[in-house]
Structures are given as C-alpha cells and as structure tokens.
Amino acid sequence: MADHSPFVVPLDATCTVPVPEGSHFPIQNLPFGLARLPDGSRSVVVRIGDQAIVLRELIQIGRVSGPPGWVGESLTGLGTAGARDLRRQIVELLGEATDPLQGALLSVESVQLQLPFKIPAFVDFYSGIHHASNVGTMFRPEMPPLLPNYRHLPVAYNGRASTVVPSDTAVRRPSGQTKSASEEVPRFGPTTELDFELEMGFFVSEEIEPGHPVAPDDAERKMLGLVLVNDWSARDVQRWEYQPLGPFLAKSFATSISPWVVTLDALEPFRAPGPLQEPAPLPHLSMARSHHFDLVLEVYLQSQRMTRPQLVSRSNAAHLYWSFAQQLAHLTSNGCGSEAGDLYASGTISGPDPSSFGSMLELAWKGTKPLELSESGEFRSYLADGDTVTMTAYGARDGLKIGLGEVRGTVLPAT
C-alpha cells in the first residue's frame, strides 16, 4: 500500500545553497513552478532561496528521478506522490557538500515564470464566511447575512480558465453592462468599481474519474499544492448581472495566481483548526482531522503617486469556513470528475475585523468609507488605473517561515 504520510523537512536540514534571511523559500519549502529558461526551453523548476533548480537537467544527468515517463517539462504527470518523492531527493542533494546540483541552478530573475499548468477548468468557491456575511449585510440588510445553504455546502461557480494569468501580468479594466438605481435602462462601458479578492487556490495533481467521489480526508492526496489567487471583480457589472445565475462578465476578465505551487507537505507545520461548523456537515463533507492552515495573508496597494506599497489588509487562511479538502469532496460528490491542472479557488478570505477584510468592497464598505492611502493622501473606494495590488501569504512558527511568494497585478485603462 502506498505511503501517504507527509514528508516534512526537519528544521535542522542542511542546505548548500544560500537562502536569504526571511525568505519564503527555505529548504523546508521547495515549491514547484514552470519556467521558460534563458535558452527558450521550458522546465519544471523547484525554488530554493533566490534560485531555481532546473529539474529537467537533474533528470537528464540522473541526479533525480520522477515518476515513470516524466521528464520534468510539465507538472502534468508528476502527481502528489511524485512531488513528495522529488522533494525528498532534492533535500538529500542539497545536503551534499560539493556541487550537488551540477549546474542545474539558475537565479529566479533569469527565468520567466509561467502558469504552473495549462489549466483545463477553474472553479471559484465562496468559502470565506466573514466575506459572505459582510456581502449579505451590505446587499440584503433586511435578511440574515448568510443564505440558508451556506453552512451546509461549499457554494461555488464555474469560472473561466482561459483568463487565469500569472503574477505580474497587467490587468486591463473591463467593460460590461451596469445599471444604477437611478437609471431606467442599463448602459455599457468600463467598470467604475474594479476590485481585488484575496483568495488561495489548489491545483488537482491527477485525474479524478467521473463517478468516483472523493472523501474529505482523502482529498489532499489529489492536490499538488496551494497558490495565491487574486480573483479580480467588477462589482457594478456583477450587481446587475449576477441574479439569478451568478457572476459572468464581472469575474471572467482576469484571475491572477502566484507562480509557485507550495505542497501541503511543506505546510504541514501550520495545520490549524478551522471555524466550528454548525450544524455539523453531512457525512460526505465530514472530516476526521484538520484540513485548515494557519497562514498569514496580506494585501498591499500602491498608486502611481506612491513610492512604496501600503498594507491594506491582513487576514488568515484559517478563517475559511469550508476547507480545501471539503471543497474538492463537494465538487466530486455528484460524480463530477476532475483533470490534472484544474484550479479551485477558495473565495475571498476576510477576517472578522475591518483590518482583515479581503476586498475593496468590504474595506471601503460599498464606497461609504473610502480607504486612505497615507503616503499620497489619496482615497480609494475601488481601484484606479495605475494601481498595483500585491498579495502574499506565509506561515511562521518556531523560527520557521514558509511562504507562497507574491501575486501582483497593475490596473491598465480600459480600451
């Protein structure tokens, strides 16, 4: 029987590659990415400090081996078990005294990071209970903040995989139909309520066959790891179009993700209890162990007039009501299958207080409390052209820091 025990790198593991103090990427992390190399070819890379280990090169010279037939040019085919085994081999290599990587090491700045997968499908959940409660309070003040189904199942909608983009890809202000309360007919034009959404997401590592539901306590075996997600939103477009079926153009124009897929093994030290789920989930969503993570989430905003970004939100991944494992279990519970590279996002992860809200909609409370940018004296209800949004995530405990890096995007004017 396969060993599904997590591989956690010891705190005292030795590493011959220098790692800057405070880096998100010590030897205990070793996340996977896909990069275009200086010679124009592509390879799966593993990050250590500010360096990228080129796996294709190590496989060719026999220093590491992946699953049968896997040559390190794509994350497809690696699988969760294959990723675990490769990280174990790389830890052993990095402990060797002399030239352990034999030239298969490049600076991160010298490679062009790509989307980790060619993404077949994208689903956006709505599992941040504080965000859902805030939105309900704003838009349905005469009703309970949460709709009746919220505490019984992970609400979600199918998004557009074709517009998922890697970090540092500029995002153009979208256009769509809007209609204010004072207008008799809708109009078409650029959104005036462009927003960010602080989310995390996971990639499915292997095919889940249709008709084979996955239990929550087995779901992580199907995940390669986590990334940061900024699911950009046009709030005025969304407000007009989302009933009765849900978001469409308001969400489909861009979703930004961080380039490094951080394995759940690397995040094992940051396991944490999630919120108390009341009522208890139905059996197909019940968990015997914790599938939440204590990860600090931060959002920074910088306008064109500012010289440095300003922290505008600090939340935590443990605020998710429904765990990533429950999300995948729910998705497959009706017999739906999934492909390697499918991306599933958490929904906006807000915390319980205003400093931890994960969107401009909440931070400025639907435009009634504009956010002040202290350096420039500007105020924001929503994002302006030229604004840059940067998100980051990390766990820190007992002197260990493991992070997901950053996802960053700058708003361009509408065409």
Verbal overview:
With 415 residues, the chain is of the alpha+beta class. The chain has 2 domains: 32-113, Roll (SH3 type barrels); 122-412, Fumarylacetoacetase-like, C-terminal domain (Fumarylacetoacetate hydrolase, domain 2). The protein has 8 helices and 25 strands. It has helices at residues 55-60, 79-94, 129-139, 216-219, 235-241, 249-252, 324-332, 360-363; strands at 32-36, 42-48, 51-54, 105-107, 112-113, 122-125, 156-158, 164-166, 171-172, 175-178, 187-190, 194-195, 198-204, 223-230, 233-234, 255-257, 271-272, 292-293, 296-302, 310-316, 343-345, 371-373, 378-380, 388-397, 400-412. Strands 7-6-21-13-14-16-8 form a 7-stranded mixed sheet. Strands 4-3-2-1-5 form a 5-stranded antiparallel sheet. The termini are far apart.
Mean pLDDT: 96
| CATH class category label of the largest domain | Alpha Beta
Strand order in space, largest sheet? 7-6-21-13-14-16-8
How many β-strand stretches?
Answer: 25
Poorly predicted regions: none
Any idea what the radius of gyration is? 21 Å
Helix content: 10-25%
* CATH architecture assignment name of the largest domain: Alpha-Beta Complex
What is the CATH topology of the largest domain?
A: Fumarylacetoacetate hydrolase, domain 2
Give the N-terminus to C-terminus distance in angstroms.
Answer: 56 Å
General shape: globular
The largest sheet is: 7 strands, mixed
Write the CATH homologous superfamily of the largest domain.
Fumarylacetoacetase-like, C-terminal domain
Number of domain units: 2
SS class: alpha+beta
Count of alpha/pi helices: 8
How much strand content do the residues show?
A: 25-35%
